[in-house]
Amino acid sequence: MTKRYDLIVVGAGPAGLTAAKAARECGLEVALLERKTDITNLHRCCGQSLVSMNDYYFGDIFHFN
């Protein structure tokens, strides 16, 4: 069976995570592609802030394969 997505986001940095989160909250089916296997351990910053992969911020919108 083929899975269809409305949006594919490449990169799980601050911008990619924020874009994926916003799109999912708007009801889109989103695929987030990242070359690293554990995105909870990425240390990237943007504008002197870190985006954290915690349940408070992202809730249950992420499912890892």
> How would a crystallographer describe the biggest sheet?
2 strands, parallel
Counted beta strands: 4
Low-confidence stretches: 47-51
- The total domain count is 1
Percent range of helical residues: 10-25%
* Straight-line N-to-C gap: 16 Å
What does this structure look like?
- The protein is built from 2 helices and 4 strands; from the N terminus they run E-H-E-E-E-H.
- The strands form 2 sheets. A two-stranded parallel ribbon has the order 1-2.
- It is globular.
- A hairpin with a 2-residue loop joins strand 3 and strand 4 (about 50).
- It is α+β, with helices and mostly antiparallel strands and about 60 residues long.
Task: Offer a concise description of the structure.
The protein is an alpha+beta fold and 65 residues long.
Write the layout of secondary structure elements.
Layout: E1 7-10, H1 14-25, E2 30-33, E3 45-46, E4 49-50, H2 55-58
Parallel strand pairs: 1-2
Antiparallel strand pairs: 3-4
